[in-house]
Protein backbone atom coordinates (compact mmCIF):
# COMPACT_ATOMS: atom_id res chain seq x y z
CA UNK A 1 0.00 0.00 0.00
CA UNK A 2 1.31 3.44 -0.93
CA UNK A 3 2.31 5.56 2.05
CA UNK A 4 -0.39 8.22 2.60
CA UNK A 5 0.65 11.84 3.03
CA UNK A 6 0.21 13.48 6.42
CA UNK A 7 -2.91 15.64 6.68
CA UNK A 8 -3.59 18.30 9.32
CA UNK A 9 -6.83 19.64 10.79
CA UNK A 10 -7.50 22.19 13.52
CA UNK A 11 -9.43 21.59 16.75
CA UNK A 12 -9.90 23.84 19.77
CA UNK A 13 -6.30 23.62 20.94
CA UNK A 14 -4.42 21.47 18.43
CA UNK A 15 -3.33 21.13 14.86
CA UNK A 16 -3.76 17.36 14.63
CA UNK A 17 -1.75 15.51 12.02
CA UNK A 18 -3.08 12.19 10.76
CA UNK A 19 -2.83 9.53 8.10
CA UNK A 20 -5.91 8.70 6.05
CA UNK A 21 -6.41 5.38 4.27
CA UNK A 22 -9.27 4.46 1.94
CA UNK A 23 -12.07 6.27 0.17
CA UNK A 24 -13.69 9.33 1.71
CA UNK A 25 -17.12 7.64 1.61
CA UNK A 26 -15.95 4.49 3.40
CA UNK A 27 -17.29 3.39 6.78
CA UNK A 28 -15.24 5.27 9.38
CA UNK A 29 -12.57 3.85 11.66
CA UNK A 30 -10.40 5.98 13.96
CA UNK A 31 -7.27 4.23 15.28
CA UNK A 32 -5.01 5.68 17.97
CA UNK A 33 -1.44 4.74 18.87
CA UNK A 34 0.41 4.99 22.17
CA UNK A 35 3.90 5.54 23.56
CA UNK A 36 6.43 5.05 22.09
CA UNK A 37 4.74 4.42 18.75
CA UNK A 38 3.06 6.50 16.04
CA UNK A 39 0.27 6.45 13.47
CA UNK A 40 2.23 4.15 11.14
CA UNK A 41 1.55 1.30 13.57
CA UNK A 42 -1.79 0.82 11.77
CA UNK A 43 -0.56 0.78 8.17
CA UNK A 44 -1.02 -2.96 7.64
CA UNK A 45 -4.29 -3.01 9.60
CA UNK A 46 -5.53 -0.18 7.41
CA UNK A 47 -4.57 -1.95 4.19
CA UNK A 48 -6.77 -4.88 5.28
CA UNK A 49 -9.68 -2.70 6.34
CA UNK A 50 -9.84 -0.56 3.20
CA UNK A 51 -10.31 -3.76 1.17
CA UNK A 52 -13.56 -4.11 3.13
CA UNK A 53 -14.65 -0.56 2.35
CA UNK A 54 -13.33 1.28 5.41
CA UNK A 55 -12.03 4.82 5.67
CA UNK A 56 -9.29 4.70 8.30
CA UNK A 57 -8.04 7.76 10.16
CA UNK A 58 -4.86 7.29 12.21
CA UNK A 59 -3.87 10.45 14.10
CA UNK A 60 -0.53 11.31 15.67
CA UNK A 61 -1.42 11.88 19.31
CA UNK A 62 -0.49 15.13 21.07
CA UNK A 63 3.27 15.32 21.46
CA UNK A 64 3.96 13.12 18.42
CA UNK A 65 4.68 13.76 14.76
CA UNK A 66 3.45 17.04 13.32
CA UNK A 67 0.62 17.44 15.83
CA UNK A 68 1.08 20.83 17.48
CA UNK A 69 -0.51 22.93 20.20
CA UNK A 70 -1.93 26.16 18.79
CA UNK A 71 -1.00 28.21 21.86
CA UNK A 72 2.24 28.19 23.83
CA UNK A 73 0.11 28.76 26.94
CA UNK A 74 -1.85 25.49 26.69
CA UNK A 75 -0.97 22.93 29.34
CA UNK A 76 1.02 20.05 27.87
CA UNK A 77 -1.08 17.45 29.63
CA UNK A 78 -1.15 13.84 28.52
CA UNK A 79 -4.03 12.78 30.78
CA UNK A 80 -6.69 10.47 29.37
CA UNK A 81 -9.48 13.06 29.20
CA UNK A 82 -7.27 15.33 27.10
CA UNK A 83 -6.31 12.65 24.61
CA UNK A 84 -9.90 11.41 24.41
CA UNK A 85 -11.10 14.96 23.75
CA UNK A 86 -8.59 15.17 20.90
CA UNK A 87 -10.04 12.00 19.38
CA UNK A 88 -13.68 13.09 19.60
CA UNK A 89 -12.90 16.57 18.26
CA UNK A 90 -10.94 15.08 15.35
CA UNK A 91 -13.94 12.89 14.58
CA UNK A 92 -16.27 15.87 14.72
CA UNK A 93 -14.13 18.12 12.51
CA UNK A 94 -13.80 15.36 9.91
CA UNK A 95 -17.54 14.72 10.05
CA UNK A 96 -17.19 11.04 10.90
CA UNK A 97 -20.53 9.43 11.72
CA UNK A 98 -20.30 7.04 14.66
CA UNK A 99 -16.82 5.71 13.84
CA UNK A 100 -15.39 2.55 15.27
CA UNK A 101 -12.58 3.68 17.55
CA UNK A 102 -9.67 1.48 18.48
CA UNK A 103 -6.11 1.45 19.66
CA UNK A 104 -3.40 0.08 21.91
CA UNK A 105 -1.36 1.47 24.79
CA UNK A 106 -2.33 5.15 25.17
CA UNK A 107 -4.55 4.65 22.13
CA UNK A 108 -6.49 1.86 23.82
CA UNK A 109 -6.90 4.14 26.81
CA UNK A 110 -8.13 7.10 24.76
CA UNK A 111 -10.47 4.87 22.72
CA UNK A 112 -12.04 3.34 25.84
CA UNK A 113 -12.32 6.80 27.34
CA UNK A 114 -14.07 8.19 24.26
CA UNK A 115 -16.50 5.26 24.29
CA UNK A 116 -17.27 5.85 27.97
CA UNK A 117 -17.66 9.64 27.72
CA UNK A 118 -19.46 10.01 24.36
CA UNK A 119 -21.09 6.65 23.50
CA UNK A 120 -23.75 8.35 21.40
CA UNK A 121 -21.04 9.52 18.98
CA UNK A 122 -19.24 6.18 18.72
CA UNK A 123 -20.25 3.13 16.70
CA UNK A 124 -18.04 0.57 18.43
CA UNK A 125 -14.72 -0.12 20.10
CA UNK A 126 -11.63 -2.29 19.65
CA UNK A 127 -9.36 -2.11 22.67
CA UNK A 128 -5.99 -3.56 23.47
CA UNK A 129 -6.07 -4.40 26.33
CA UNK A 130 -9.46 -4.74 27.99
CA UNK A 131 -11.12 -1.93 29.91
CA UNK A 132 -8.24 0.51 29.56
CA UNK A 133 -9.39 3.52 31.59
CA UNK A 134 -6.82 4.74 34.11
CA UNK A 135 -7.73 4.29 37.76
CA UNK A 136 -5.59 7.07 39.27
CA UNK A 137 -6.46 6.14 42.85
CA UNK A 138 -5.52 2.54 42.16
CA UNK A 139 -2.23 3.58 40.56
CA UNK A 140 -1.16 5.02 43.89
CA UNK A 141 -0.84 1.46 45.25
CA UNK A 142 1.85 -1.10 44.49
CA UNK A 143 1.54 -3.80 41.87
CA UNK A 144 3.34 -7.12 42.11
CA UNK A 145 7.14 -6.83 42.20
CA UNK A 146 7.43 -8.51 38.79
CA UNK A 147 5.11 -5.92 37.20
CA UNK A 148 6.78 -3.02 39.02
CA UNK A 149 10.04 -4.21 37.46
CA UNK A 150 8.51 -4.15 33.98
CA UNK A 151 7.21 -0.62 34.63
CA UNK A 152 10.70 0.75 35.34
CA UNK A 153 10.22 3.49 32.73
CA UNK A 154 7.14 4.85 34.57
CA UNK A 155 9.13 5.10 37.80
CA UNK A 156 12.04 6.74 35.98
CA UNK A 157 9.73 9.40 34.55
CA UNK A 158 8.60 10.52 38.01
CA UNK A 159 11.95 12.30 38.54
CA UNK A 160 13.76 15.10 36.74
CA UNK A 161 16.48 12.54 36.11
CA UNK A 162 13.87 10.69 34.05
CA UNK A 163 12.97 13.81 32.10
CA UNK A 164 16.65 14.28 31.28
CA UNK A 165 16.97 10.64 30.25
CA UNK A 166 13.99 10.85 27.90
CA UNK A 167 15.15 14.17 26.46
CA UNK A 168 18.65 12.94 25.69
CA UNK A 169 17.94 9.29 24.92
CA UNK A 170 14.40 9.15 23.52
CA UNK A 171 15.35 6.84 20.65
CA UNK A 172 17.45 4.38 22.64
CA UNK A 173 14.86 4.25 25.43
CA UNK A 174 12.03 3.66 22.97
CA UNK A 175 13.92 0.89 21.21
CA UNK A 176 14.44 -0.85 24.56
CA UNK A 177 10.70 -0.65 25.29
CA UNK A 178 9.81 -2.04 21.87
CA UNK A 179 12.05 -5.05 22.50
CA UNK A 180 10.92 -5.63 26.08
CA UNK A 181 7.19 -5.32 25.39
CA UNK A 182 7.20 -7.37 22.16
CA UNK A 183 9.86 -10.02 22.81
CA UNK A 184 9.01 -12.10 19.71
CA UNK A 185 8.57 -9.21 17.26
CA UNK A 186 11.50 -8.96 14.82
CA UNK A 187 11.06 -5.38 13.65
CA UNK A 188 13.59 -3.93 11.21
CA UNK A 189 15.55 -0.71 11.45
CA UNK A 190 13.44 0.98 8.76
CA UNK A 191 10.27 0.39 10.79
CA UNK A 192 11.76 1.84 13.94
CA UNK A 193 13.34 4.79 12.11
CA UNK A 194 10.03 5.72 10.46
CA UNK A 195 8.26 5.79 13.82
CA UNK A 196 11.06 7.46 15.78
CA UNK A 197 10.76 10.59 13.64
CA UNK A 198 7.50 11.23 15.53
CA UNK A 199 9.50 11.62 18.75
CA UNK A 200 11.13 14.81 17.40
CA UNK A 201 7.96 16.76 18.27
CA UNK A 202 8.87 19.72 20.53
CA UNK A 203 6.19 18.68 23.06
CA UNK A 204 7.09 14.98 23.11
CA UNK A 205 8.97 14.99 26.41
CA UNK A 206 6.53 17.26 28.25
CA UNK A 207 3.48 15.23 27.19
CA UNK A 208 5.07 11.86 27.96
CA UNK A 209 6.38 12.93 31.36
CA UNK A 210 3.06 14.50 32.34
CA UNK A 211 1.12 11.41 31.25
CA UNK A 212 2.95 9.14 33.66
CA UNK A 213 3.20 11.62 36.51
CA UNK A 214 -0.53 12.36 36.25
CA UNK A 215 -1.30 8.63 36.02
CA UNK A 216 0.54 8.03 39.29
CA UNK A 217 -1.29 10.91 40.98
CA UNK A 218 1.81 13.06 41.39
CA UNK A 219 1.00 15.83 38.90
CA UNK A 220 -2.31 17.65 38.57
CA UNK A 221 -4.21 17.55 35.33
CA UNK A 222 -5.91 20.33 33.40
CA UNK A 223 -8.56 21.79 35.76
CA UNK A 224 -11.00 22.23 32.88
CA UNK A 225 -10.95 18.45 32.32
CA UNK A 226 -11.54 17.49 35.95
CA UNK A 227 -15.32 16.92 35.53
CA UNK A 228 -14.53 14.31 32.86
CA UNK A 229 -11.90 12.69 35.07
CA UNK A 230 -14.36 12.61 37.98
CA UNK A 231 -16.81 10.70 35.80
CA UNK A 232 -14.10 8.29 34.62
CA UNK A 233 -13.05 7.66 38.22
CA UNK A 234 -16.45 6.02 38.75
CA UNK A 235 -15.42 3.28 36.27
CA UNK A 236 -18.35 3.83 33.89
CA UNK A 237 -19.35 0.73 31.98
CA UNK A 238 -18.88 0.70 28.22
CA UNK A 239 -22.13 0.31 26.35
CA UNK A 240 -21.01 0.32 22.71
CA UNK A 241 -20.24 -2.98 20.94
CA UNK A 242 -16.64 -3.89 21.76
CA UNK A 243 -13.93 -6.41 21.01
CA UNK A 244 -11.03 -6.53 23.44
CA UNK A 245 -7.67 -8.14 22.73
CA UNK A 246 -4.83 -9.56 24.82
CA UNK A 247 -1.35 -10.53 23.69
CA UNK A 248 0.00 -13.63 25.40
CA UNK A 249 3.59 -12.35 25.29
CA UNK A 250 2.92 -8.87 26.68
CA UNK A 251 4.81 -8.41 29.97
CA UNK A 252 2.73 -5.31 30.76
CA UNK A 253 -0.46 -7.39 30.97
CA UNK A 254 0.51 -10.58 32.83
CA UNK A 255 -2.41 -12.98 32.92
CA UNK A 256 -4.40 -10.88 30.47
CA UNK A 257 -7.45 -8.70 30.99
CA UNK A 258 -10.42 -11.07 30.63
CA UNK A 259 -11.54 -10.21 34.17
CA UNK A 260 -12.68 -6.81 32.89
CA UNK A 261 -15.59 -8.40 31.00
CA UNK A 262 -18.23 -7.14 33.45
CA UNK A 263 -17.36 -3.55 32.53
CA UNK A 264 -18.65 -4.09 28.98
CA UNK A 265 -22.44 -4.24 28.98
CA UNK A 266 -22.98 -4.02 25.23
CA UNK A 267 -22.15 -6.77 22.78
CA UNK A 268 -18.64 -7.87 23.69
CA UNK A 269 -16.05 -10.45 22.77
CA UNK A 270 -12.57 -10.96 24.20
CA UNK A 271 -9.83 -12.62 22.17
CA UNK A 272 -6.24 -13.62 22.88
CA UNK A 273 -3.47 -13.70 20.29
CA UNK A 274 0.17 -14.78 20.15
CA UNK A 275 1.68 -11.31 20.29
CA UNK A 276 3.28 -8.84 22.63
CA UNK A 277 2.17 -5.29 23.38
CA UNK A 278 2.08 -3.94 19.81
CA UNK A 279 -0.72 -6.09 18.41
CA UNK A 280 -1.47 -3.89 15.34
CA UNK A 281 2.04 -4.49 13.98
CA UNK A 282 2.68 -7.94 15.40
CA UNK A 283 -0.74 -9.42 14.56
CA UNK A 284 -2.36 -6.97 12.12
CA UNK A 285 -4.86 -9.51 10.80
CA UNK A 286 -6.13 -10.17 14.32
CA UNK A 287 -6.59 -6.47 15.00
CA UNK A 288 -8.25 -5.87 11.63
CA UNK A 289 -10.56 -8.86 12.12
CA UNK A 290 -11.65 -7.37 15.46
CA UNK A 291 -12.60 -4.12 13.73
CA UNK A 292 -14.43 -6.05 11.01
CA UNK A 293 -16.32 -8.04 13.64
CA UNK A 294 -17.57 -4.85 15.29
CA UNK A 295 -18.48 -3.44 11.87
CA UNK A 296 -20.54 -6.54 11.08
CA UNK A 297 -22.33 -6.27 14.43
CA UNK A 298 -23.36 -2.73 13.50
CA UNK A 299 -24.89 -3.66 10.15
UniProtKB/TrEMBL annotation:
Which Pfam families has this protein been placed in? Answer: Abhydrolase_1
Q: What is this protein called?
A: Pimeloyl-ACP methyl ester carboxylesterase
Which species is this record about?
Answer: Pedobacter cryoconitis
Report which superkingdom the organism of origin falls in. Answer: Bacteria
Q: Where is the AB hydrolase-1 domain?
A: 28-138
The entry lists its GO molecular-function terms as: catalytic activity
* Alphabetized InterPro entries for the sequence: AB_hydrolase_1, AB_hydrolase_fold, AB_hydrolase_sf, Epox_hydrolase-like
**GO cellular-component terms in the record?**
membrane
